[in-house]
Design goal:
Radius of gyration of chain A: 19 Å
Number of domains of chain B: 1
CATH class of chain A: Mainly Alpha
Number of helices of chain A: 11
Largest sheet of chain B: 2 strands, antiparallel
Order of helices and strands of chain A: HHHHEEHHHHHHH
CATH architecture of chain A: Orthogonal Bundle
Shape of chain B: globular
Radius of gyration of chain B: 19 Å
Largest interface: A-B, 41 and 41 residues
Helix content of chain A: over 70%
Oligomer: heterodimer
Strand order of the largest sheet of chain A: 1-2
Number of strands of chain B: 2
Number of strands of chain A: 2
């Protein structure tokens, strides 16, 4: 029985961690699905979100979740500006140009944070940071659960936006066929700006949600999050928003199970190996029919 | 080709006098030369063949570890271990490429990050092999012909020789049949295949050559550092730095990566006091400038202008 308990606990931890990974992944997959751009700076926007929570906490004494009210709109507009001034210029260049441009943005964000905040890890202390409660003998971390709830809300909201609104229709149209969308009068440049804004907003949101749990450091964490986001989106299928949840949970479970039953020091590697295998044998993702769906 | 080789010879001859003129600025010159060599090796695959790798730090690490462990555990001299590292790097690149060359464009770049990260985790965790996260220390080195390999002057000449060999290789390759195959695959894989070129075999050869050369530079870097930590030498940031050096300097040009190394390491040195550890900021800003305004890179743009001027004169 003890073995089963541990197994259930592992699954629960994996699923909860996976919710966080999914939250990091959806922004990346949305941007890829519509703009065909692999956003290397995604993880750095997550870190930017973490630091925004640190900043609001230091200046105004706000709880991280309260700072979402300001951080999300700021993230959206930051994304729109980056798209307008940088990415829109390389959208028709070879795909590597966009990748290199976002790599440049990533380096600029990471090092700008390093210059402003310094290299030491920052965090926000909240009373519920380490609180847990248990359901049927399985311990659940409060912060992870909140992050999971945020993921579900965000994905529901995104689903509603994409399927129930006029902008959402335009986004889906642009993803399906950019030229066709332009022919029926959709301003695809505006759509690209909105989508990148949404992507950054989601990244910032993930960062804010994570700050009670993780320390923010300027340069390394960004790359780690970008890599996680890639793994999540490739597992689910690049450009498939719904499947990002499944991809995130899969990554979380694979990491936790791999770490507890094989070699714990290779925790990070299991996700990467899964990522390579999927990329090689099922590039459309585990759940994707085609690469083009949003 | 002869013109470029003569140019290289002249530059190397001038370089030989550097330690006599600036005996106190050797460390930065070694960095420039090593990065020039790495970026030029990277360019064989990334520029001439169009496969952007973001995992080349793995080969730097491989070379450095071979030299360090060979010396500290088995008492093997660096030149033997560097030769072994080059061979192993080529074999590693063969399997790595065999696994990932079915992916094109950005997907290939992503897969190289994944492979390099897995190798980094191996270097950190397999203590019996690499000494783990604490790293390896080179305490003694042989003294060939009485030369102290720990002295910066000796290291400078090794780095100079490394950069020279790599650039000479690229000069020869650029005019060889293989060089034209590389470019054909870069421009259009399907057309290259129609012309009787095997794209995967071409990419594999480029990757193996690129990896072997990079690992030799890594061996020299190991001697320069004398203390090797997996976090530093296998870092994603080093891979990114190597790739960006070549791209900013000018992809697919003979001198571009070397010029890139000179500009970027030089700029890093100038702004060192301003930006402290945030010196990668310069790479970020310059790569944006290059992507947006000079997609050919510094040397590529200069070459284009030069050619246009020649045509204008003729007309």
């Amino acid at each position: 029985m003890a073995g089963l308990d541990i197994f259930l606990q592992n699954i629960a931890n994996g699923v909860l961690m996976g919710g966080v990974y999914a939250l990091i992944g959806i922004g990346l997959t949305l941007v890829f699905g519509v703009m065909r751009t692999i956003n290397f700076a995604h993880g750095d926007f997550v870190v930017l979100g973490m630091y925004s929570a640190v900043l609001f906490n230091a200046l105004l004494g706000w709880d991280p979740y309260l700072s979402l009210v300001l951080a999300m709109p700021i993230g959206f507009f930051a994304g729109v500006i980056v798209e307008r001034f940088i990415l829109s210029r390389v959208i028709d260049a070879p795909p590597e140009s966009a990748l290199l441009a976002t790599l440049g943005i990533s380096l600029i964000i990471g090092n700008a944070i390093l210059l402003t905040f310094g290299g030491e890890p920052r965090s926000v202390q909240v009373s519920y940071a380490s609180s847990t409660f248990s359901i049927a003998g399985v311990n659940v971390s409060m912060v992870l659960l909140l992050a999971g709830i945020a993921t579900v809300i965000m994905i529901a909201a995104l689903y509603a936006l994409l399927n129930r609104t006029e902008v959402g229709r335009a986004i889906r149209g642009t993803a399906e066929n950019r030229l066709g969308a332009e022919l029926v009068g959709i301003d695809t440049r505006r759509i690209h700006s909105i989508v990148f804004g949404l992507g950054v907003m989601l990244a910032v949101m993930a960062g804010v949600t994570l700050i009670p749990l993780l320390f923010a450091t300027p340069t390394n964490t960004g790359a780690v999050f970008t890599l996680k986001a890639f793994v999540v989106t490739v597992l689910g299928g690049l450009g498939n928003v719904g499947a990002a949840i499944a991809g995130g949970i899969l990554l979380g479970v694979v990491e936790v199970l791999g770490a507890s039953y094989f070699m714990s020091e290779y925790r990070e590697a299991y996700g990467l190996i899964a990522f390579l295998l999927i990329l090689l044998f099922r590039p459309e993702g585990l759940f994707g029919r085609t690469v083009k769906r949003v | 080709m002869i013109k470029h080789l003569i140019g290289l010879g002249v530059l190397l001859a001038i370089g030989m006098t550097y330690p006599a003129i600036f005996p106190n600025n050797l460390t930065i010159a070694i960095s420039v030369l090593l990065f020039a060599g790495w970026a030029t090796s990277w360019d064989l695959l990334g520029g001439w063949n169009g496969q952007v790798s973001l995992g080349h730090a793995s080969f730097v690490g491989l070379g450095a570890y071979f030299v360090a462990i060979g010396q500290s555990q088995f008492g093997l001299a660096p030149w033997w271990t560097m030769a072994m590292a080059a061979a192993v790097a080529a074999v590693l690149a063969y399997f790595w490429g065999w696994l990932t060359f079915s992916l094109r464009g950005p997907y290939f770049s992503l897969s190289t990050i994944a492979v390099a990260e897995i190798l980094r985790l191996v270097a950190i965790n397999e203590e019996w092999l690499t000494g783990g996260a604490t790293g390896v220390f080179i305490a003694t080195l042989p003294e060939p012909f009485g030369v102290d390999l720990f002295s910066r002057t000796a290291q400078f000449y090794m780095a100079l020789a490394f950069a020279g060999v790599v650039i000479a290789t690229v000069i020869v390759v650029s005019r060889a049949r293989f060089g034209y195959q590389l470019r054909a695959v870069r421009e259009d894989e399907d057309s290259a295949m129609a012309a009787g070129i095997d794209p995967t075999a071409t990419k594999l050869k480029a990757f193996m050559l690129s990896a072997a050369l990079t690992s030799i530079g890594g061996g020299i870097y190991g001697i320069v550092l004398a203390f090797i930590e997996p976090h530093v030498i296998f870092a994603l940031l080093l891979s990114v730095q190597i790739a960006l050096t070549a791209i900013i300097g000018g992809r697919g040009t003979i001198w571009g990566p070397a010029v890139g190394a000179l500009v970027l390491i030089g700029a890093g040195e100038i702004f060192r006091t301003t930006f402290a550890e945030a010196n990668m900021l310069i790479y970020g800003i310059l790569i944006l400038v290059v992507v947006l305004f000079v997609p050919r890179g510094i040397v590529g743009e200069l070459a284009r202008r030069h050619i246009r001027r020649l045509y204008a004169k003729r007309a």
